[in-house]
Amino acid sequence: LDGKALPEGFIYGCATSAYQIEGAWNADDKSPSIWDVFLHNKTTNDVTYGSNGDVADDFYHRYPTDIPLFRNALAVQTYDFTIAWTRIMPAGRGALSDKGLAFYRNVIRASNAVGMSNICTLYHWDLPQSLQDEYGGWLSRNIVDDFRAYAKAVFKALGDDCSHWVTMNEPRTFCTEGFGPDPDSAPGVVSTFKEQYTCMHYALLAHAAAVEEFRLGGYKGKIGIKVDGGVSLPLDPSSAADREAAARTMDFEVGRDVAPLYTGDYPPSVLASGALPLKFTAAEKKMLKGSVDFIGLDFYTSQWVTPTKNCTPDSDTYPECTDQFQQDPRTGLDIGRPTASSWNFDAPHATIYGGIKYLAETYNATNILISETGMGVLNETNLPLEQVLEDVDRIAWYRGVLSAMRQALDDGFPLTGFIPWSCIDNFEWTDGYNVRFGLIQVAYDAAGKGSQARHPKLSGAYLKGVLTKGNPINPY
Ligand code: GCO
Question: How many other CB atoms are found less than 10 A from the CB of residue 437?
Fold first, then answer.
């Protein structure tokens, strides 16, 4: 990378997720997920253009040509995909579907046929609706046993076929956006932030249970988790109050996911806050501590924080009690931050270098992947194709990311992989198809309607050049 060798075994790949690319929402044995139901029930147009993942990129049918395209256009050495629980185990528990299992076996076989290994994620937000209906999904301790059984069954069938297993993607995000005072994602349960914390508590236990099954099974690969968040910085670095607010926000937004994996419990500031509805037992702490061989950082943004003036128990930022101002990774523009600041804020560097440094120094993390990052471009849909494919803004974002990775490696931090989001344009949840993160374009409109033709973008060629051909990070 930029003239220096990458560490031995460094992984360069690209990522997608089942609900966002597969489509075929009710093909073969697949049962409805909470996202299928949540979006089918949307009467208002608060999901862009009423779009959903019913068809998406039609990857369920197009994977035989898409997977070689990922390899050829991006030269990635690994393909990071997620397994739909509802496709491989439609009832949420019990028997695996032969057709569902065959599909994921074929994806792995197609990856291996073009020289790619696989990172396989068990859960990326698409819970079987049947478990939501039966006991409220992630708000019930029952989910821990069902997730354990699901993981055990999938490992039994595919355990040795993936070099890396990820138990789940971003528990904090799916718990924060699916629950709380104004949930905008599935299952859309209006509640207080306490339910967000309950969801996260059970998600961490479910993660640890799956890891226990993986290790009991003696499978060859490594297992970990992908956590999201960003780096919180003091709005005014000279203010002790702002510095304390930034540290507290890191504890609540990243430490709450990560600390239990390394120490067995939540960060002290979280435990002391009184915000937690549930505490870990001694046996649970033992199961949680050391439950990752690697940790994936899905980091996109950083924010500046200052103590909030209006902290009330039912506000959904109550425990952090901070006002946060973010730089929008999609436009690179400061959103909401006081314009008085003269900061020339380099979001990719603060986010990526800062995230790696935080994990390594706070939790002594020893195997850190950048498992998602990228730039979502608003309204790419409406631009002329040649302008979409010459995605210089996205290249600028990745230039910052790669520079930050280079510095993290130079500073001796244990960075072991880079998995940009995403291999291909896909359904961006409540932004529909109107925000594009792909290194490969898909020819459909904001409602997901179109020819489905694929066109590699310049950013994909850029990453291929830098990561596999020794091109400089900064060609100018
Ligand atoms: C996430 C999810 C992805 C998103 C991507 C862009 O982090 O939200 O893992 O599914 O599509 O991050 O927002």
Answer: 27
